[in-house]
Amino acid sequence: NAGVTQTPKFQVLKTGQSMTLQCAQDMNHNSMYWYRQDPGMGLRLIYYSASEGTTDKGEVPNGYNVSRLNKREFSLRLESAAPSQTSVYFCASRGDSGDSNYEQYFGPGTRLTVT
Amino acid sequence: GEDVEQSLFLSVREGDSSVINCTYTDSSSTYLYWYKQEPGAGLQLLTYIFSNMDMKQDQRLTVLLNKKDKHLSLRIADTQTGDSAIYFCAELPGGYQKVTFGTGTKLQVIP
Question: Which among B39, B46, B59 is positioned nearest to B20, based on CA atoms?
């Protein structure tokens, strides 16, 4: 039981390049999330998916797209990277009403630098 | 709107108690959480409190909730160097979908 896994762990991109961050969970959770973490700003929600086949915008969706490929996987794509997207990206998943506290489980993060 | 605020930094001596404070704005919040983030890692749930509770104790951790003032605190008794981390409070509103996280409080424990 690996929990939430993310790849890659580190990435450096040039402005204008594209890339996809991968996330997978093996806990059979319906809900999955992508956050970015910047110093002094906490975690900000980029996109989330309440179930397979659905996605919704969060607080800071501009410049990103997502795909909920199946129940396990939720990917985040940067089509044309900008220096403002330099950040640490976290994927999370969450159980539903059958669980006691709606705890979110986080992946280890992807550190992205855009030059 | 939803806004969760925390002070950015707290420094305590090993063995003392630490109190980390948080204010939130969504009165419909059902669950309030404290997550811990160690350097280079993701967040891990430390403890949580349901909105109909005033206090919850879990070993060295005590969570206090003041719903009237929308104030949440985390007290760590006998703080150890291993408690050095960033602590995030978070709220889950009644829609049960999107958790809002605070800015995080970096706890430094001085030996």
Answer: B46
Reading the block at residue A8, the tokens are 């890659």
pLDDT at res. A100? 59
Residue A99 has a pLDDT of 57
Q: Do B42 and A90 touch (CB under 8 A)?
A: yes
Tokens found for residue B18: 């630490």
Q: Residue B70: phi, psi to the nearest 5?
A: 55, 50
Distances (CA, A) of B105 to A14, A108, A115, B7, B14: 32, 19, 29, 6, 17
Q: How far apart (Å, rounded) are the C-alpha atoms in residues B92 and B96? A: 6
CA gap A34, A57 in Å, rounded: 10
pLDDT tens, position by position, B17-62: 999 999 988 777 788 999 999 988 889 999 999 888 899 999 999 9
Given an 8 Å threshold on Cβ–Cβ distance, is A42 in contact with B102? yes
A21 near A89, Cβ under 8 Å?
A: yes
- In the DSSP assignment, the letter for residue A84 is G
